[in-house]
Amino acid sequence: MIITVSGPHGTGKSTYAARLAEALHVRHVSAGALFRRIAKEKRISLEELGEKALEDPSIDKLVDERTISEAEEGNVVVDGQLAGWVLKDRSDLRIYLTAPEDVRLERIAKRDKVAVEEARVQTEQRESVQRERYSRHYGYQVEDRSIYHLVLDTSLGSIDDTAKVLVSAAIMVRRARKSQRKSTKP
User: Fold this and answer.
1) Residue 80 backbone dihedrals phi, psi, to 5 degrees
2) Distance, CA of 125 to CA of 180 (rounded, Å)
3) 3-state helix, strand and coil shares in percent for the chain, rounded to the nearest 5
4) Whether the Cβ atoms of residue 21 and residue 10 lie closer than 8 Å to each other
């Protein structure tokens, strides 16, 4: 089973992907963590790496190749901005998380230990560069949610309640896949 979790910054992609992976007893891979690791190795900020990636598509290609490689092993939850798009033809369940901007910015500020206004400036800059990168290098409009099976606002409930909704959806898809396999056996 391959599940993707996508959405804007601060919606809880990594949090919920980890919860899903744990509940389903599968691996969790974060494309965002890989991007952060590359920035750290290059000793530059995420914003600087994003700017470099705008001009150098090989940075995103590296993240994509790793993401696809992990997905091909199966039994994984992959979170990332483009995870749903990159794994569109391979994934069993594509989830898109959303939340109001003020909620996202508060979460980012808390996670990164910065003021909300600083989180706003950094997030707007990152998202602007990402939109341009994704459109230029892939032709994707990240706001296009038409490829997703489930779109959920993570501000509607607690982390636990939201995770239960996502786990329930994943279990439903897993059962449907098993049922389909049984019905196609000779």
Assistant:
1) 170, 160
2) 44
3) 60, 10, 25
4) no
